[in-house]
Amino acid sequence: MRHSASPAPVRLTVRAASSLYTVEIAAGLSRTLAATLDTAKLPPRRFIVSSPTVWRLHGERFRTASAEEPILIPDGERFKTLATAGRVYDGLVKAQADRGCALIAIGGGVIGDMAGFAAATFLRGIPVAQVPTTLLAQVDSAIGGKTGVNHPLGKNLIGAYHQPSVVIVDPELLATLPRREFRAGLYEVVKYGVIASRRLFERIDAELTPLFARESASLIPVIAESCGIKARVVAEDERESGPRRVLNFGHTAGHALEAITRYRRFRHGEAVAYGMLAAAEIAFARGVLPAADLDALRALIVKMGPLPPIADLETSQVLEAVARDKKIVEGTLHYVLPAAIGRTIIAADVTGGELGEALRRMGLR
Ligand SMILES: NC(=O)c1ccc[n+]([C@@H]2O[C@H](COP(=O)([O-])OP(=O)(O)OC[C@H]3O[C@@H](n4cnc5c(N)ncnc54)[C@H](O)[C@@H]3O)[C@@H](O)[C@H]2O)c1
Ligand SMILES: [Zn+2]
Predict the structure, then answer these.
(1) Cα–Cα nearest to 49, from 28, 29, 69, 67
(2) Are 126 and 91 in contact (CB under 8 A)?
(3) Which segments within 162-215 are labelled E, that is strand?
(4) How far is the CA of 272 from the centre of ligand 2 (A)?
C-alpha cells in the first residue's frame, strides 16, 4: 500500500494564566500515547475515561497507555450530567485512586468536558490529558480548560476551569467519524477562518475533498491553525472576560436555534453555521461587511453540504431565545460581527429588529 507523506508533527504551546501546556498534533500520535504522556510528566498511574462507542472503534490502540481498567461512560449530550460524571468518581474511588493519579480523556467534547470536570473536582483536582476524537473536540473543546456538565434546566451550567496537562491530537482518529459529525466540526473551523484567518478560510474552501476524505496531509495544517487561534485567544483571556468573546462568533443565533429545537434538530456546528450567516447578514446590512465576503461565506457553507431546514422556524422564537440567553443588555445585543473574512468587530448596539431582519433574509418565518 502506498502512503502519501504525512506533514511534520506540530507542537503548539498554550500559555494560559494558570498553566502552560502543549498541544501535540501528528498522524498516528495516539499509537504512542504513553510516551507522549511521560514527556508531559503526567503522573504514572493513569485512568482512561472514554465512551463505549469510541472504545469499540479505537480502544485497541490505547491499550498500552494505561494499566488500569478504562472507565467507560455514555457520551450523548443527554448523558452529560452530574450523574454520569459521578460514575468517573465511582471508578476512581473503587480503584483507590489518590492525588498521584491522572485521567486521560479519550472522546468527543462530551467525554472531554465530563472527564475534565471529574479531574477538576476529584480530590480537589488531579491532572488530565485530553485526547480528542472528534473534529470539534480537536479544534475547540479540548483546549482552554473549560469543563463541565449540563443541568436539566440548561447547558453547561455546572463547571470549572481546569487546564489539561497536554492535548494530543491525532487526525487518524477522525477516520471513523460520521460525515455529519465531521462537517459539524468543520463549521467551527470556518468560524476560526472568519474571525482570524482568511488563509485558513481559503484553505478549507480549496481542500474540501481531501478534508472530507480525512487525509492527514490536509487535516493537520487546518487543525493546527485552528488550535493556534484558540490557544492565542485563551492565552489572552483564560476566563472569557474580553477577547475570548470573539470565539462566540456565530453562537448567539446558533445557541438560540439549538434551544428552540430542543437540541434535537441541529448538531452544534450546524446551528453555528446559521449563526455565522445571521451575523454576516447583520454586518452586511450595516455596511460593515463587503458583499463579496458575505457571498464567500454563504458559498462555502453551501458547498460544505446540507444543513437542517429552518423555513418552519419563527423569527420571534429565535429572538425570545436570544433574550433568555441574557445577552440582551437594555434592548441591544453585544454581537461579534465579521468586518471581513479574517476580522471581526464587537458591536454593542445590535437591535432585535436587525437580528430579526437578518433571520428573515435567511428564510425563517
Ligand atoms: N469545553 C469547551 O470549551 C467546549 C467547546 C465547544 C464545545 N464543547 C462541548 O462539546 C460537546 C460536543 O462535542 P462533540 O461534538 O465532540 O460531541 P460528542 O462528544 O457527543 O461526540 C459526537 C459523537 O461522535 C462519536 N464519536 C466520537 N469520536 C468518534 C470517532 N473518532 N469515530 C466515530 N464516532 C466518534 C461519539 O460517540 C458521539 O456519538 C458539547 O457538550 C459542548 O458543550 C465544549
Ligand atoms: Zn461552538
Answers:
(1) 69
(2) no
(3) 166-169
(4) 7
Q: What is the DSSP letter of 6?
A: P
Compute mean pLDDT per 10 residues along the chain, 365 residues long, and list them.
68 92 97 96 97 97 93 95 98 97 98 98 98 98 96 90 98 98 98 97 98 98 97 81 83 94 95 98 98 98 97 95 73 89 94 95 95
Q: Looking at the whole model, is its pTM more than 0.90? A: yes
Distance of CA 77 to the CA centre of its chain: 14
Whose C-alpha lies nearest to ligand 1, atom 4?
141
> Which protein residue has the closest C-alpha to ligand 1 atom 44?
141
Instruction: Fill in the amino acid letter for 180.
Output: R
For residue 144, give the amino acid letter: G
| Alpha-carbon gap, residue 333 to 58, rounded angstroms | 44
Task: Give the catalytic positions in this structure.
Answer: 124, 146, 188, 230, 240, 244, 248, 251, 255, 268
Cβ–Cβ < 8 Å for 195, 246: yes
CA angle 103, 170, 112 (to 5 degrees): 35
- Taken in order 14, 231, 79, 159, the sign of the CA dihedral is positive
- Is the C-beta atom of 144 inside 6 A of ligand 1? yes
Q: How far apart are CA 21 and CA 13, in angstroms?
A: 6
